[in-house]
User: Fold NADH dehydrogenase [ubiquinone] 1 alpha subcomplex assembly factor 4 from Mionectes macconnelli.
Amino acid sequence: MGGRVTRVFRTFNVESRARREISKEKPTPAPRHRTARLDTTAHQPEVKEEILRRDDRLLTLLKDVYVESRDPPGQVKDGGGEQRLPCKQEEKRLTKLGHLGALDVKKVSKGKISIVEALTLLNNHKLHPQIWTAEKIAAEYSLELKDVNSLLEFFIPFTVQEFPKETKKAIKS
Assistant:
């Protein structure tokens, strides 16, 4: 409904408004600053002469500059002619696979854990906090102690609680 109302106002007297805009005089552009013009050097012959003059002192200094460049020797590979950039090798560790082993990744970088490992260690700490301390978890999963403390503080696994079904007496109240 609102679209119809706005369309009526938008199309009202369109032709006369368009004619009025077309018949208006075009505004003159603002004058440019005189230093912005490129032809200022044409009126000053001393500037042109300075541009075209050779400076022998600068040329002799330029001739004294010598740049020597050496490429490091390339390594020959049997597989192909293209070279690859050296990449940083990360230390990997095998994951501690739980009952979801097929869904989890097999190798993880040191200092990181997979989702399944995170859920497993959080659950182990929740069930047995005396055994699974932050120090033991950090040593077991190759993590930093401050990261493990933050993980145990801010992430809590869900708990499923079943409440007894309400009886008919409780519903009638």
Observations:
- The chain is about 40% helix and 5% strand.
- The mean pLDDT is 78.
